[in-house]
Amino acid sequence: MVDLVIPEDFCTNDVKPVGKTSHSDGENKHFIWGKGDPNGKAFSNEDVKAAYAEHGEKMVPLGIHGTTVAVDWDSCIAAGECFGVCPVQTFQWYRTEKDIPAADCMNATFEGTGLTEATERLDASDKSQPIREHDCTICMACQEICPQGAIRIEAANQEWHEKADGTYVKCHPVAADHTLTIKEIFSFFLFFNFTSTNFNHFFASLFAEVA
């Protein structure tokens, strides 16, 4: 595996994303981090430069797309290896859904209907878009196979995704010597939407242990 170009702390310590790409399901999204790197590997790749010229587009820094599945679009050269190893089709070729400049993916909405085979890219200016980041199984195969080291997989970054999304809830551990009150127990069941069967099973097991 080649060295990764994405630093470990690209999204941590309350760094703010510069934008996002939303999924049309209205629930999922992936964030975009950093101002991008004009010295990324894509900028020196002849195939990528020729494809941009064919589109009449200027190459600009694009940043890191995704948080738990992070793809450095400035180093992605549309090689496609990540498509061939992903078991859940986390990635799509963004241009096969919307043939727009990559910079215009910032704050855009995609349906996830783009093509997902390694050989199906539109051309070398296409990018591996983690449109189904939320489905990633953290198998690490894409990170290991990317020839440019342009992918970083990190499950722990889910915290920073949720913080950016405003949905983060910190869990406070209960001290070992703390006795739960009836109110706390009922709140627990309500929070996890326990059924009456689960409720009865829980207390049956609890009293069995006490006995």
Give a structural overview:
The chain has 211 residues and is of the alpha+beta class. The protein folds into two domains: 19-165, Alpha-Beta Plaits (2-Layer Sandwich), CATH 3.30.70.20; 172-211. Helices cover 25% and strands 12% of the residues. It has a six-stranded mixed β-sheet. Strands 5-7 form a two-stranded antiparallel sheet. A hairpin with a 3-residue loop joins strand 3 and strand 4. The protein starts with 18 loop residues before the first strand and ends with a helix.
Derived from helix and strand composition plus strand pairing, the structural class reads alpha+beta
The strand order across the widest sheet is 6-1-2-3-4-8
Average the pLDDT over all residues and give the rounded result: 90
Q: How far do the termini sit from each other?
A: 56 Å
The CATH architecture term of the largest domain is 2-Layer Sandwich
Shape: elongated
Strand content: 5-15%
Q: What's the total helix number? A: 6
Count of DSSP strands: 8
Order of helices and strands: EEHEEHEEEHEHHH
* CATH top level class name of the largest domain: Alpha Beta
Task: Say what the CATH topology of the largest domain is.
Answer: Alpha-Beta Plaits
Rg of Cα set? 22 Å
